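Lab notebook, bench 4. Still working through the backlog of constructs that have no structural model yet. Next entry is a single chain of 737 residues. Request: give me the structure tokens for it.
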Amino acid sequence: MNRQGKDLDWMTSSGDVEVDVEYGGESSFMGISVQGIIDAVRRNWLIILIILGVALAGGVVATLLMSPKYISEAQVLIEDEADQIVEGSELRSNSDSGPDTGRFLQTQIDIITSRSLAKRTVQNANFAGDARFFDAFHEKMPEIGDSGVSNEKDLQQARLNLATDLVMGSLRVDLPQNSRVVQVQSETGSPVYSARVANETANTFIQNNLNRKFDSSSYARQFLSDQLEEARANVAQSEHDLNGYSRTAGLIRVEGQSSDGSDGSISITSNALVQANNDLGVAASNRIAAQDNWETIAKEPVLSVPQVISNGAVQNLMQQKAELQAKLADERTRHLSDYPSVNSLRSQIAELDKRIQSLGNSIKRTVYLEYQAAKEKEDSLKARVSELQGDALSEQDRRVQYNLLQRVADTNKAQYNALLERYNQLSASAGATSNNISLVDSAEPAAIPSSPKLIYNMVVSLFLGLVVAGLVVYLRELFDDAIKVPSDVEAKLGLPMLGLIPRHPDEERGEIISAPPRMIAEAYHTLSTNLSYATAQGVPRTIAVTSTSESEGKTTTSHLLARDIARLGKSVLLVDLDLRRPRLHQLEGASAKPGVTDLLIGKIGLEDALFPSDQPNLTVMTALPIPPDPTVLLGSERMGALIEDLKGRFDTVIFDCPPMLGLADTISIAPHVEGVLFVVDASSFHRGAVKSALRRLRLVKGRVLGVVLCKYDPAGGGKEAQYYGYNYYSYGESAGG
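Model written out:
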């Protein structure tokens, strides 16, 4: 199998063939082909250059049209609040407040950039009445008669609002990391007014902070009052949560002496566990004693058991038995053993034995029952102790949450007491105030403008141009149906490429079929070799060759493929099924030879429709004469029977079918053949039309073997397409072939 510039890994399964194409040495980054990007750039280099040129020109024009602006900067030191009320009326600076410091500094920055401070700055510096201030921002100073300005009051308000907006728009406040020096910057079209706006804003901020300090004591008392109210609510809520959890968790404790001997509260569950444990000890002792008694007499005869012998009833019965035995002995001295009186005494003695034995067994069973009762009581107490232990452990788990809530309540109480003490201290003394904000550096008029910056604008323009160019190239490549490299076949159609037929500079169909150039012949050798792996038995027995539209190369492919397979020694039949525009009879010089049409209507026999070609092992069948309705003939049952008959006569039957677009002829043939070879013209490829044709084949369960890419021109396909140039197919010719 030829390499064709890439490795073809054939995998066959159930007669199907798949092609796994891998390009050796092609670099990629995160799944993106770097070489593909380079090729796309090469194909669209002119568009990219035009877009970049327009972007750079736009950057230059925008730079020239921009008015110069100047930045001035004032620096303000913001220290932490110094008014922390502690014991008595002392003041202490809190310089290590962690996250609170960051929030405090951010709050001060927000104050600097607020509209209220900008408005006060305008009023303090009288910017609203300064025409040069508006000129610095390239704004027209409002006058009576402008939109919404009809009187002096409206005029003053309009000027104030516009000046405030301009000040806010010109300000930029930065706080360097790990620093308390805030940079207040202003950017305007005038270096003088840039410095004035920055300085006036800094001074207004400092003055505003001093004004707030005058009311610090009142604010602190109100603040502490609010905190006290919140702390009081927290105490009440924590106490309520504690009692509610105690009620929900069922934690009941009584005052008394704890288990360790100290005074405190003990749990009812713990107390019950102690009592049950004591009862269990007593029950265990009783069970052991009862068990000893029973085990002692369990295997002894009844009359040997001490409890039986010592029983009064047993002793009475034993005495009665002894008296009867004495009478029996006396009777036996006077009478024979079967005398009625002797038998009567014997019966009485036997009855007494039964009563004695029964009573003894009852006494012995009583001892056993006492043992069982003691054992059951012990087991019951064990279960009770185990249950109480579980309850005690569960109560301990619930007690953990109770203790947490208790600590929260204690903490809230301590916080409330501390706030109350501070509030009382603040009410008793007026705390002194100090300003924690100061001006470090005043703003100076800038010597050079801060913008526009030509280099910066050019870099931004270049970047935007690259983005736009990349987007344009991406969209062009995305919607481009052309096949520039063979890998596009799989990417755009999802089918393996079985053959790649290059475009010949002097391509003439008749000449190519009769005497194909070396590069064309090599390409069809590769196609026939690839087809030998299409099924487990080799080349499919029946192959239909079709395309989307006319003039894509299906007739040339059918002829040259049939000839190439015939050269391998196989019997091949080439059938022209294009009943609308047949060409086989012209190419093979059989213009008067009847073919498929006459055969299907029964006018001639199969042998009459076959005639040999000039190529050994190759037989052809024309489509003559042209029928009025080809679809009816091709869709008939006789067509299917004909295909089966031809399959038994030849090793391979190749059907040159009509194009798919708008016709149902090939659809009728596809289900009866082992595979369909789809020919695609690389020079006029339209993915939508090809996919529509393939979809129609799948609807009738036609098996598409793969794609033959014809008329491929490697020029303009990028680096990958260079592997498919003409020199490859003429390799060796210079050395004598």
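Notes after review: Residues 84 and 429 are 13 Å apart (CA to CA). The radius of gyration is 56 Å. Flag for follow-up if needed.
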